Description:
By secondary structure, the protein is an all-alpha fold. Helix content is 57%, strand content 0%. The protein has helices spanning 7-25, 31-50.
Amino acid sequence: MxxxxxxxxxxxxxxxAIAVGVLYYFGVISGTLAIILGVLAVIxxxxxxxxxxxxxxxxxxxxxxxxxx
Length: 69
């Protein structure tokens, strides 16, 4: 599992997850929508911490900066 997420990508995912949490806390979202967005928020946080997005793999996407080795 090679890391394929850059810091900007991870930051955006964390901010989106926090936004979903805040919307749920204040009652803006509820029911099925809250469950779906909550699951996505958990996935966003998990992939941010491991720096790997499985959906990027089949498409060859990487938001990590290229190393100059």
